[in-house]
Amino acid sequence: MAATPASGGGAYSCETAAGTREWMEALAAFLGRHRPLLEAHVVNFFKDRMWELVDAEWMECLRREPVESLLKLPSGCVQEHWPATLREFVLTARSLVIPREQKAPQSLVPDVHVASIGTVLAQGMSSKKKHEIENLAAVVHAIAKSCGAKTVVDVGSGQGYLAQALSFEYQLPVVAIDASSHHASVTIARAERIKKHYAAKCVEKQLLTVPRTVTCHVLSSDTLAAVTLDACKDDHLEHVRETKACTSKNPRIPESTQSSPSLILAGLHACGDLSVNMLRVFVACEQVKALVSVGCCYNLLSEDSYEDTNTCPGFPMSKAAKLSKLVLGKSIRDLACQSAERWRSLTLDIVLQNFDVHAFRAAFQMVLEKYFPEVSRLSPSIGRQGKALRRQRLRKVVESQMAMEKIDNLSCSNLKEQNMNTDDVDSVVHGVDTGPDDIHHDECRKFALFKDFTLSGLGRLGCGSVEDMSLLEIWKGVQPFSEYIGPFWCLRAALGPLVETYILLDRLLFLQEQNSLVEALLFPLFDPTMSPRSMAIIAWKLSVNSSEA
Question: Is the pTM of this model over 0.70?
Answer without folding.
Answer: yes
